[in-house]
Amino acid sequence: MALNGSTTNQALLDAQLELWQNTFGYIKSMALKSALDLRIADAIHHHGSGGATLPQIVTRIMIPSSKIPHLRRLMRVLVATGVFAAQHPPPAVGSSGDDEDEPMLYTLTPVSRLLIGSQNLAPITTMNLHPAFISPFFELGSWFQHKEAPESCELFKHAHGQTCWGQADRDATFNALINDGMVSDSNFLMDIAINECAGAFQGITSLVDVGGGLGASAQAIAKAFPGVKCSVLDLDHVIANAPAGDTGVQYIAGDMFEKIPPADAMFLKWILHDWDDEECIRILKNCRKAIPPREEGGKVIIIDMAIGVEPSDLRHKEMQAVFDIFVMVINGKERNEKEWKKIFFKAGFSDYKITPVLGVRSIIEVYP
Questions:
Q1: DSSP codes joined into one string, 260-274
Q2: Residues whose CB falls within 8 Å of the CB of residue 100, separated by 6 or more in sequence, listed in order
Q3: How far is residue 265's CA from residue 299's CA, in Å, rounded to a whole number?
Q4: How far does CA 249 lie from the centroid of its chain?
Q5: pLDDT digits (tens, 9 = 90+) for 115-172
Q6: For residues 351, 267, 196 and 364, what is the CA-based torsion angle, rounded to 10 degrees?
Q7: Is residue 139 within 8 Å of residue 155, measured between CB atoms?
C-alpha cells in the first residue's frame, strides 16, 4: 500500500528502518548492561591485546554451556554497536585461511576501553542503566497527563513513591550506586577539564566543591593546584562514606540549600542540572554569599551542559537532548546559554564565560 504516489518503496523501507532504530534502541542499552554485568570487557582485556575467543571469554565470565550460543548473539549486537570489535584470527601455518569455523577473535574498542582499568566509566554507566532510573520512563506518557505540577510530582517519585535523593538517603546501596558513579565520572573528566581549562582554577587560594560527593573532583584539583585549599560540602549520609586518610581535601557535612562555607571559588560539577530554576537560583545565591568580589578572585566554576554551544554536530545535539530527558526524571534540566544567563543574573551575578571543551559538557565561569 503506497502512502504517497511520489514516495518510493525504498524510501518507505528506509523510514521503517529509522522507526525500528528508535523502537529497538533499548536493546543496545540492555546489551551494554549485560556486558557490564558479565564483565565481558575485563574478560577480553585479560587475554591481552590480541583479543579473546568466545570460549576464552566464557572461562572468565562463568556462564552455563547452554548459554554460549546466546552469548554469541549478544556479542554480535555489541560488535554491531561498536562496543567490541571482531575479526577472524590469522590463519595457522599451512592453513588455507578459509575456515569459517575458526573461532572469532573479540577485541576492545575505544568505547569498551572506557570500561576497564582503575579509572573506568563502568560505575557511572551502571548507574545510568540501573532499573531505578530506567523504569520511570515506562510511566512517561501517563506522567505527562498527570495534573500535578512537575515540581510536586517528579517522574522518579511518580514511579517509586519517593524522590531520587530521598531514596539515596534511605537506601545505602542506592546511595553507593550514585556516589560511585559520580566518582568514576570525575576520575575520567577532571584531568581533561584541568588540562583543557587550567585558567579557570588559577588565581584562587581556596575552593569548595559543592555537592561534591566523595571528593574525587576536589582531590584532582588539589593535586593539580597544591596551593588551593579544597573542601567538599555534601549531606551527612554522603560525607559519612568519605575516604579516610590524607586525601588533601576537607570534608564538610552541610546543605547547599542552607549555607555554603566561604572560599574564593565554588565548584559545581553536574549539580545544577539536577534542579529546577528556582532551586538553582537558591544554590547560586548561597554561592554568591560565600565568595569574595570578582576583583579578589571570587567566582563560581560549573561543569554542565550548555545546549547549542559548540561543538554542535548531530551526535552532540542528540546526546544533549537525550540527557535533558534523562535528568527530567528527577525534575532536573539541561540548559541553553539563554537559560543559564537568566538564572545567573537572577542569583545576583554580573558576568559569565562558557568554554565548550568537554564534549557535550562545558566549563562555565560565573562572576559576581
A1: ----SEEEEES-GGG
A2: none
A3: 5
A4: 24
A5: 999 889 999 999 999 999 999 999 899 888 887 776 667 899 888 999 999 999 999 9
A6: -30
A7: yes
Tell me the whole-structure pTM to 2 decimals.
0.90
206's grid cell: 581556596
8 Å CB contact between 102 and 89: yes
Report the SS3 class of residue 184.
Answer: helix
**Which ranges of 99-232 would DSSP assign to H, the alpha helix?**
110-113, 122-128, 131-134, 140-145, 155-160, 164-170, 172-196, 216-224
71, with CB counted inside 10 A (0-12, 13-18, 19+), is middle
273 annotated active-site: yes
Q: Among 88, 130, 273, 316, which one carries the catalytic annotation?
A: 273
Total residue length of the chain: 368
Query: What is the CB-side half-sphere exposure of residue 329 using CA atoms within 13 A?
Result: 20
3-state secondary structure of 177: helix
82: left (phi over 0), alpha (psi -120 to 50) or beta: left
Rounded Cα distance between 193 and 253, Å, is: 26
Instruction: Answer for the pair 288, 350: CB distance below 8 angstroms, yes or no.
Output: no
314-334 per-residue burial string, b: 16 or more CB within 10 A, e: under 16: eebeeebeebbebbbbbbbbb
- 43 Cβ partners below 8 Å, 6+ apart? 52, 56, 57, 60, 61
- pLDDT tens per residue across span 190-207: 999 999 999 999 999 999
Helix (H) or strand (E) holding 43: helix 40-46
3-state SS, residue 230: strand
